[in-house]
């Protein structure tokens, strides 16, 4: 029997960055808020002196348990999808703070071009430039960068982002709240080489603190220690802005907020009397296996991309996308990012075993439409990165191409090169395509008897052309840095493989827009079919960018929270 709990004003599904921002803002406004988090409680005390690469980086201690819930994958529609049991291409979090606990801290903004990609591309290059299979799915987001700037600014101040002005970036309303991180010997080498090529490198915007910082909500963050345990790890120093040390603490201090842990949401319940609204959500206590109903005035999906899509689909809210007819919106516009580049082998040693998740330099000379695409077989591009995140021995074992995978020569190369390799890589855009989408699998189910999400995805000719172009640019910089040997990754990616780690930056499935015919939510992230249902996170993006998405996720979460407060007060659908 389902047990009904006391009604709240707002319930969020998940307690990561998006759930935490929505909770903090709405709780500060006086609303009663509850987050349902499928994982457990944890805080900084749990990470003291636990520099365990095997536990966290290899065995995914902070990630989703794929034996309970995963997804199935195929490259093409006529293939059989199979379950993913080893996470690679994305790392959804589990527990307090979600994936925001183990992120690197790279906090870019998207470009004005990203928000108006269709109109800007067609105006400059003509309608054929977008490509036949992507042209119907590429569109403007319905909101501009200028409208989003204030939300970017707010997120950066909450997260204490360390950075410097980007000469190729959009206009800022205020400087970064913290100065950039330290510029190491290897970063200076990259900077000098890039400038010789007349490029514009800047220090990467970083949510790792360059100094002690107190954010506008009064949350204190400490200076980064450059310990090299950032991505895939939580921070033991409170020196990386994460939801658990910022917005979740802020929400809890109001007295209007509660997190219920070990609570896996299985269904969004539609109001039987008013089909344009929802009444709350059903969830299962993962420890007792009891089922509960949490009533709420407003329901906000703030979980990982696949789960946002899945909850809408199993709850029969919205129309599933059909690649044959290109009708329907739910599950459409799934996009990824690629991370290819060039590795240089040097005689000199560098302290690459030290670092931080967002310690690095970045340049946007080949990002967006910052360069001419007239004679190129692709649109957009990608940022080029050089980072010193801290090399650890299990995941980082560089040897030159052609070296045997084991034996005496491998060991010699491995030891020799551990602190003598530097990589320059690109973070490249991918666009929507008619055959890139999410659906439900008819064969495989999760531990709660719901179907698993099924992903259909493969690289396109545009992706291969874009990556070939960007890897060549990376190789030029590495050569200018003075490498004695350079290995360049092949721009032709072949079939997409979900197992190797490439990036966690995925988007789409519940895209935003100004027309319910081609979007799932409006630009306030309010669902078109249910007035009191909101969806936040990268699942609402129309396409991916050549920059890290977390800053944009945070910015839209603040806009979403603003919309929820207004909706709860006026009880009227929000206008774009």
Structure description:
The structure is a single chain. A hairpin with a 7-residue loop joins strand 10 and strand 11. The protein folds into 2 domains: 1-42 and 88-112 and 142-160 and 240-337 and 505-576, FAD/NAD(P)-binding domain, CATH 3.50.50; 181-212 and 338-428 and 461-494, no CATH class. The chain contains 11 helices and 20 strands. The strands form 4 sheets. Strands 1, 2, 3, 9, 10, 11, 12 and 20 form an 8-stranded mixed β-sheet that branches. A 6-stranded antiparallel β-sheet has the order 6-14-15-16-13-19, covered by helices on one side. Helix 6 (185-196) crosses helix 10. The model has no long low-confidence stretch (mean pLDDT 94). It is an alpha/beta fold. The longest helix is centred in the last third of the chain and has 21 residues, at 461-481.
Major β-sheet profile: 8 strands, mixed
Which shape, going by the Cα principal axes?
A: globular
Q: Beta-sheet strand percentage?
A: 15-25%
| Annotated CATH topology of the largest domain | FAD/NAD(P)-binding domain
Task: Indicate the structural class.
Answer: alpha/beta
CATH superfamily of the largest domain: FAD/NAD(P)-binding domain
N-to-C span: 41 Å
- Percent helix: 10-25%
Average pLDDT level? 94
Region (Disordered): 161-180
Domain Glucose-methanol-choline oxidoreductase N-terminal: 146-333
Pfam families: GMC_oxred_C, GMC_oxred_N
Protein name: Gluconate 2-dehydrogenase flavoprotein
